[in-house]
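Customer escalation, tier 2.

The customer says the design service returned an amino acid string that "doesn't look like it belongs to this structure." They asked us to rerun it and document both sides in this ticket. The original structure tokens are below, unchanged.
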């Protein structure tokens, strides 16, 4: 093959990468903002047992109680607390996930979906999981900050644990160094592989066998399929998500409740068994609507890009 041919392929691959990055990022930013209140409620329910701001007799009783109290005690606008960080975080996270997914898929899933269904499915799972884990390495401090800002229940500025993204990063780094910003990273990697493997793998596999022409498929059916896929992916990885967020809450503290991942798991289980790992899970089902929107918007926006 001539050097000109190789150069042309490299340029085309580069353009495809940038296109995937932009399409995935825009889709994610829109959907995340729409479901931000649900996501904050989910985080509050997950971490309230380790929060130093929420007294034992002031814990939220459930989704509705949490929603009403946040609106009453902190103000309705605070339902979007940390959303700007989430958009900043989610743009590169989701965009990199989609971009890396296609890159990994070329190497991990070179199978014909019609002739090698099993291998194609496993390859899709592997490429989705690898994309998620790789992306997480770059954006974890933002993911960490999003959790800490969303878990901050102070109303007035002097009651807040952090005043914003910069203050959160600087405060934790000053107390715990870079390790503090990456607390819970190892279990997050496992969780993201499980989630993204199901999320991308299930979606890629399903759209090949449930839709003859997925780019021109009915948007409603595509959304419903994406909703089911997103919900199941979220539930599969939810216990790991709870553990990682509990570990994140320890950074910057002199006294820690958990010595590590397994200690955290055992203590959470001691609370109420498996149910303790799924606190806020129902809100996660509603939050999954955002993930479903991302998948559908990605396909539709990509379709528009391909026309030009």
């Amino acid at each position: 093959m001539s050097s000109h041919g190789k150069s042309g392929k490299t340029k085309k691959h580069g353009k495809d990468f940038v296109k995937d990055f932009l399409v995935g990022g825009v889709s994610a930013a829109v959907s995340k903002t729409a479901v931000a209140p649900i996501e904050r409620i989910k985080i509050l329910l997950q971490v309230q047992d380790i929060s130093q701001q929420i007294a034992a007799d002031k814990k939220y009783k459930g989704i509705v109680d949490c929603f009403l109290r946040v609106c009453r005690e902190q103000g309705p606008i605070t339902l979007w607390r940390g959303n700007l960080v989430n958009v900043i975080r989610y743009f590169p996270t989701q965009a990199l996930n989609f971009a890396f997914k296609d890159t990994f898929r070329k190497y991990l899933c070179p199978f014909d979906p019609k002739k090698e269904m099993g291998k194609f499915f496993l390859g899709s799972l592997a490429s989705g999981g690898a994309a998620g884990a790789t992306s997480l390495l770059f954006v974890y401090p933002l993911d960490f900050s999003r959790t800490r800002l969303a878990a901050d229940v102070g109303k007035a500025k002097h009651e807040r644990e952090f005043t914003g993204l910069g203050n959160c990063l600087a405060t934790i780094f000053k107390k715990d160094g870079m390790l503090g910003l990456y607390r819970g990273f190892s279990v997050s990697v496992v969780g993201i592989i499980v989630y993204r493997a199901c999320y991308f793998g299930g979606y890629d596999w399903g759209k090949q066998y449930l839709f003859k022409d997925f780019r021109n498929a009915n948007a409603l059916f595509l959304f419903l399929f994406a909703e089911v896929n997103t919900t199941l992916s979220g539930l599969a990885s939810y216990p790991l998500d709870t553990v990682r967020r509990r570990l994140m809450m320890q950074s910057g503290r002199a006294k820690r409740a958990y010595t590590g991942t397994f200690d955290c798991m055992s203590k959470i289980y001691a609370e109420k068994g498996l149910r303790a790992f799924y606190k806020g899970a129902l809100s996660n089902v509603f939050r999954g609507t955002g993930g479903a929107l991302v998948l559908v918007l990605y396909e539709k926006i990509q379709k528009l890009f391909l026309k030009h």
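Tier 2 assessment: The sequence is consistent with the input. The mean pLDDT is 84. Residues 17 and 224 are 28 Å apart (CA to CA). Sent an explanation to the customer and offered a walkthrough call.
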